[in-house]
Amino acid sequence: MAKRDYYEVLGVDKGSDESTIKKAYRKQAIKFHPDKNPGDKAAEEKFKEAAEAYEILSDPQKKARYDRYGHAGVDPNAGFGGAGGAGMTMEDIFSHFGDIFGGGSGGGDPFSSFFGGGGGRARSSQGERGKNLRIKVSLTLEEIATGVKKKVKVKKHTTCSSCKGTGAKDGNSTTSCNTCGGRGAVNQVRSTMFGQMATTVTCPSCNGRGSIITNKCGTCNGESVVYKEETIELDIPAGVSEGMQITFRGKGSAGKYGGPNGDLLVVISEKEHENFERDGQSLIYDLYVNFADLALGASIEVPTLDGRVKIKIPEGTQAGKIFRLKGKGLPEVQAYGKGDLLIHVNVWTPKKLTAEERKLMEQLRDSEHFNPSPDKTSKSFLGRMRDIFS
């Protein structure tokens, strides 16, 4: 069955802001939460559907791709480092969206305190998720045209090699937490106006790990991670543009005590090019031609991202003429085809003339064919640009 539109799932308009989308998701999550609908598979599917929709629409980059390409634009196999959404498990949802409800600090179900129950979801082995990192990567147009593998140096937390991420000196200097019995979570019962409610919260003694370190690792001082510089290879797809953000899952800081790694968020920056100006997937090149070549016609060499090519300037070409070289522009991310190279013809007027050159120009100035006689049917520059892109 085809996926429903994400805006329809959350019941919001396409122009809704982040706050509206967040409130709509919270409403759906409460309505269809498994603890409120025990054994109801349909409710569970709607709960997961709402979580998937929120993950996409709450992220500006993913939302932009979804608005432009639909579900295909946020396919986790589309080369953006994974879009998430599809294939999320219930545990992923509980962990990933805990911030919406202000819970889940220890990796447990953030909804359990709201509904009472769900204690079985607390996992003593989860640890703490690593932090996301954001870096900027500058690319040339040549690199954008083909895609590129980039090695970058990033300072981040990595798993301690001495204790293998346990925080204990020999990897085994731990004992089960007496407070939670190794579960990483404890049950609490409190009285409310609706009666007694059972909740499951992170164990305050072991912070959800289920164990206590008795002899700390000397390298990381029991933290399980160390801060150092690491070289990471990034596979950046062709067609990216200025300001685009690509998420590389699990490439951020290491999680503590076996927790999952954070993500590396790479923001694209374009380097200024000596020849071309970018307009979407098209490239614009200003070609300066002397008056004689425009009047007589010529074969002129121009640069492209693939090397230099020759174009024919017909006799009588006017300044402002735009030539188009199809497919010599840039590709679109995860799409077929390329933009074009638009060559804008400009007349080059000499700034200095010799006495002989001046004499020749004076002779030509009053000649019959040198009097301007523009074609009334010719289009303006903007009109020609519209024709190029139509």
Descriptive keywords:
alpha+beta; elongated; HSP40/DNAj peptide-binding domain; 4-stranded mixed sheet; Helix Hairpins; 15 strands; 3-stranded mixed sheet
Number of continuous helical runs: 11
Instruction: Report helical residue fraction.
Output: 10-25%
Largest sheet: 4 strands, mixed
What Rg is obtained from the alpha carbons, in whole angstroms? 31 Å
- End-to-end gap: 36 Å
Which ranges are low-confidence, i.e. pLDDT below 50, for 5 or more consecutive residues?
81-86, 102-125
Q: Overall 3D geometry?
A: elongated
CATH topology of the largest domain, what is it called?
HSP40/DNAj peptide-binding domain
Structural class: alpha+beta
**Could you give the count of β-strands?**
15
Total domain count: 3
Oligomer: single chain
Strand content: 25-35%
CATH H-tier superfamily of the largest domain: Urease metallochaperone UreE, N-terminal domain
Assign the CATH architecture of the largest domain: Sandwich
CATH first level of the largest domain: Mainly Beta
> Mean pLDDT, rounded to whole units?
82
The helix/strand series, from N terminus to C terminus, equals HHHHHHHEHEEEEEEEEEEHEEEEHH
Strand numbers in spatial order across the main sheet: 10-11-15-14
Task: Characterise this structure.
The protein has 390 residues and is α+β, with helices and mostly antiparallel strands. The protein has three domains: 1-88, DnaJ domain (Helix Hairpins, Orthogonal Bundle); 129-161 and 224-272, Urease metallochaperone UreE, N-terminal domain (HSP40/DNAj peptide-binding domain), CATH 2.60.260; 276-389, HSP40/DNAj peptide-binding domain. It contains eleven helices and 15 strands. It has a four-stranded mixed beta sheet with strand order 10-11-15-14. It has a three-stranded mixed beta sheet with strand order 1-9-8. Strands 2-7 form a two-stranded antiparallel ribbon. Strand 10 (276-279) and strand 11 (282-290) form a beta hairpin. Helix 2 (18-32) packs antiparallel against helix 3 (41-57). The longest helix is centred in the N-terminal third of the chain and has 17 residues, at 41-57. The protein is elongated and about 105 Å long. Mean pLDDT is 82; it is low at 81-86 and 102-125.
